[in-house]
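Researcher: Let's do a round of design. I'm pasting the structure tokens now; please hold your answer until I've finished.
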């Protein structure tokens, strides 16, 4: 009989990490707030569930994170095995973008977050990594409005994910992704959904007619922003930006127009 490792519990010590609080529990493992007793700092510690599938998924995520190096991508601080538990340590965030969207957000901060989302995703695509689960819950916020793209547990290389089972989160999924096909253009569509929600307060749903819900709030950012998002959210893959790098270039090209529109709108309100 094969003995299984017990699920970790608050107060337990795993190597140099003491588990303080469980932050979440999923099918593949638990995430804890933990104290690094050697470096004297707090981290988020993901502990893989003790099944071959969960451990392999965790190893794959560790390998992917180890080859990504960008300020807008959550960095892997440590990965190890303690007492039969496979763990990975990452910085502990203040909150997720999903949490932040429940409160008012200025247009300036919105564009700052949008830039970081696209920069992180563009870096992943440059390294031939598809995220495949781009959504606000997988975007972590730190001090000074720093945003980092996180959770590469579903990530794969384009060559291995063109056809397969459906992967992603309902509501933040490209049409072809729901059919088991993923590509950089699928991540582009999902990023477009996130940016649309950030600027409209609403999330488009199938059949993704344009413009979607929240169009009045979307209008605040001007026609250049609407055109930029419309291309990201094209139903036909070939009409979208080819990858996040291309989408980032387009964002940087239209950003001055968006900022001028926001400035003119603010001036009109002041004269009001």
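Researcher: That's everything. Go ahead.
Model: Designed sequence:
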């Amino acid at each position: 009989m094969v003995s299984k490792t017990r699920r970790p519990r608050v107060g337990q010590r795993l190597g140099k990490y003491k588990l303080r609080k469980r932050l979440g529990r999923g099918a593949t493992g638990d995430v804890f707030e933990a104290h690094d007793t050697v470096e004297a700092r707090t981290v988020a510690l993901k502990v893989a569930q003790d099944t071959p599938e969960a451990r392999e998924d965790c190893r794959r995520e560790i390998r992917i994170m180890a080859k990504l190096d960008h300020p807008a991508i959550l960095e892997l601080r440590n990965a190890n095995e303690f007492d039969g538990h496979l763990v990975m340590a990452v910085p502990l965030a203040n909150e997720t973008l999903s949490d932040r969207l429940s409160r008012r957000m200025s247009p300036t901060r919105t564009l700052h977050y949008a830039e970081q989302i696209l920069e992180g995703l563009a870096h992943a695509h440059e390294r031939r990594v598809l995220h495949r689960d781009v959504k606000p819950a997988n975007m972590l916020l730190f001090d000074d409005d720093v945003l980092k793209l996180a959770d590469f547990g579903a990530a794969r290389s384009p060559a291995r994910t063109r056809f397969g089972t459906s992967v992603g989160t309902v509501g933040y999924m490209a049409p072809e992704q729901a059919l088991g096909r993923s590509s950089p253009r699928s991540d582009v569509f999902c990023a477009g959904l996130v940016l649309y929600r950030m600027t409209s307060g609403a999330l488009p749903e199938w059949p993704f007619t344009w413009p979607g819900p929240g169009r009045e709030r979307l209008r605040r950012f001007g026609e250049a922003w609407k055109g930029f998002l419309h291309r990201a959210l094209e139903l036909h893959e070939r009409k979208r930006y080819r990858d996040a790098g291309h989408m980032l270039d387009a964002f940087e090209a239209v950003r001055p127009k968006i900022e001028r529109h926001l400035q003119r709108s603010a001036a009109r309100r002041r004269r009001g």
